[in-house]
Design goal:
Layout: H1 33-48, E1 66-71, E2 81-90, H2 108-125, E3 129-133, E4 144-150
Antiparallel strand pairs: 1-2, 2-4, 3-4
Length: 158
């Protein structure tokens, strides 16, 4: 268990290993920078459009809203995708979900929905496909964007 995930295993970390050398993964597994290149590219778009501050700007206890971009294991990429990431939006302090099973602050659900729609629209205008998903095992109120792009540069087929 790491401090970062607080014991919640990411569903993609449970992908079983290949049983034999003859089996091939659904997508080639990038090595080194290429695997994370998609996350860097998407994060750059979000920073350049003002939708999230850079990681350097939000160092420490950041009270404003921001996006976290994580690379997705290639076995979970849509067919024909050259990159795939998940974008999680963390709202400003006044809209953050309180701990425990308590109601959201007033306007929080609407704020998250509107902000995710704006982030998705901006990424689509930049040539990506963005779809709203709910990660397995997360609270029912937690949504994120799965963002990908086809190898030919067009939005990937879903």
């Amino acid at each position: 268990m790491t401090k970062r995930n607080r014991g919640r295993a990411h569903p993609l970390s449970a992908v079983p290993p290949l049983d034999s050398a003859s089996e091939q993964p659904a997508s080639p597994v990038p090595e080194g920078f290429d695997y994370y290149g998609g996350a860097t590219e998407v994060a750059r778009v979000l920073e350049e459009t003002g939708l999230t501050p850079s990681r350097a700007e939000r160092k420490g206890h950041w009270r404003g809203g921001f996006c976290a971009v994580e690379a997705v294991h290639p076995d979970s990429w849509p067919p024909g995708a050259e990159l795939c990431v998940e974008v999680t939006y963390y709202p400003p302090a006044e809209f953050r979900r309180p701990p425990g099973n308590v109601p959201d602050p007033p306007g929080a659900a609407e704020h998250r929905r509107e902000r995710l729609a704006l982030i998705a629209q901006t990424l689509q205008e930049s040539g990506f496909t963005a779809e709203l998903i709910q990660r397995d095992g997360w609270p029912g109120r937690q949504w994120l964007l799965r963002v990908h792009r086809a190898q030919d540069g067009s939005p990937a087929a879903k």
